[in-house]
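4.2 Preliminary Data

To establish feasibility before requesting continued support, the project team ran the inverse folding procedure on a target of 420 residues. The structure was first converted into the token representation described in Section 3, and no sequence information of any kind was made available to the design step. The complete token record follows.
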């Protein structure tokens, strides 16, 4: 189509020195070459970077190659009109925020309404004053800049609100943990302290045989050990929550470690459960059943945190035993892969209610179905913290009165299966 040409080109020099140099990029879309050239000359002299397109499709291609800061868009063009170009740009998340000023010789009010309805920010009728074009470009660039800054500030405020919300939530959790700590510790300490006091008074005021004295002393020692273990658990959780617990990687024989731990558990709870254990080393296709009952296991040297691993396995095995009826089977499986180990500990006990699974690893949390079984609710919280420190993962599957299975995955390094 043929548009009316821009008039008064001499005005270009009139405001060259009065306008502030702007490095923004402007895309001019017009099928009249003269209009493009004149607008380009004016904008370049004002410091703008100029892109040019003589059709709607060329304009869309230009935008995809280099996003402009603002677009001057003619309406009537031979392929697709300016309304369609604007609609496509506004539907694209990458280009929807680019301000578009329509420039056209059409004076129909309906055309102007259409221009704004498809997403245009302004409408300039031809012929126009060049100083007006510059003023409107500057205005909308400033508005766009202010809008971006406002959006950034809103995002920053939202981020700050989220951080504050998380901080408040963390403070509430810490406050609740302190309350739970006082409640649990006062309850857990009251019984052993009463026992210690009673035993010490009996030793002080009554005549005892040597054997009876030793028995009372062993009772005191047992209660002190229980209190010490509880305090160590609480201190460990405290260090973990303040990021003071560190990963201490050392090399040790994983098979020997697991075998000794399982033997210890078997001796401690020999009358209460049946232990089945199985180890599989995938890289060497080695299967070992009940390794705790065997000698001369092939050494498997790994680099892990031995102390954290002991905490994880001891707590999970103890829970499996504690929450299972006597003489039930507890399964321990270890699979050694290229760069990780997978521990699976499963029981045939009381299971975990579904509503408790969400809070299972929270400090001092205990299932609703544990009844009078002793415990502090710290074991699984310690397990989760140990696994997090080791950059591993844990998952649980459970059914009431059927059993529970924990799967722990931990990374390993410097793994080596040595010759026997």
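Position-by-position output of the design step:
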């Amino acid at each position: 189509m043929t548009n009316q040409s821009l008039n008064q080109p001499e005005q270009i020099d009139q405001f060259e020195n009065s306008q502030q140099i702007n490095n923004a990029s402007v895309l001019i879309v017009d099928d009249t070459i003269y209009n493009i050239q004149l607008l380009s000359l004016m904008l370049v002299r004002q410091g703008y970077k100029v892109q040019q397109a003589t059709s709607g499709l060329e304009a869309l291609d230009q935008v995809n190659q280099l996003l402009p800061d603002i677009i001057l868009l003619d309406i009537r063009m031979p392929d697709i009109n300016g309304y369609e170009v604007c609609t496509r740009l506004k539907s694209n998340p990458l280009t929807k925020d680019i301000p578009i000023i329509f420039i056209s010789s059409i004076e129909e009010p309906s055309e102007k309404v259409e221009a704004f309805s498809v997403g245009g920010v302004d409408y300039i009728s031809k012929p126009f004053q060049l100083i007006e074009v510059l003023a409107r470009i500057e205005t909308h660039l400033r508005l766009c800049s202010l809008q971006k800054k406002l959006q950034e500030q809103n995002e920053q405020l939202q981020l700050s609100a989220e951080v504050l919300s998380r901080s408040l939530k963390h403070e509430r959790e810490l406050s609740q943990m302190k309350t739970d700590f006082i409640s649990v510790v006062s309850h857990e300490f009251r019984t052993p302290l009463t026992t210690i006091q009673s035993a010490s008074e009996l030793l002080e005021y009554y005549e005892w045989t040597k054997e009876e004295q030793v028995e009372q002393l062993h009772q005191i020692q047992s209660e002190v050990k229980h209190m010490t273990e509880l305090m160590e658990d609480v201190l460990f959780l405290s260090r973990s929550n303040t990021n003071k617990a560190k990963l201490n990687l050392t090399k040790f024989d994983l098979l020997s470690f697991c075998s000794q731990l399982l033997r210890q558990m078997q001796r401690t709870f020999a009358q209460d459960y049946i232990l089945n254990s199985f180890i599989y080393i995938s890289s060497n296709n080695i299967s070992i059943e009940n390794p705790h009952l065997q000698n001369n296991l092939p050494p498997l040297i790994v680099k892990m945190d031995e102390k954290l691993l002991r905490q994880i396995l001891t707590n999970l095995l103890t829970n499996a035993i504690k929450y299972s009826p006597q003489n039930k089977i507890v399964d321990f499986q270890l699979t050694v892969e290229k760069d990780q180990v997978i521990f699976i500990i499963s029981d045939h006990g009381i299971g975990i209610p579904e509503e408790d699974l969400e809070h299972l690893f929270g400090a001092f949390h205990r299932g609703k179905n544990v009844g009078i079984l002793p415990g502090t609710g710290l074991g699984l919280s310690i397990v989760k913290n140990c696994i997090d420190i080791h950059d591993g993962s844990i998952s649980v599957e459970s059914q009431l009165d059927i059993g529970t299975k924990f799967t722990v995955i931990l990374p390993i390094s410097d793994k080596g299966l040595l010759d026997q």
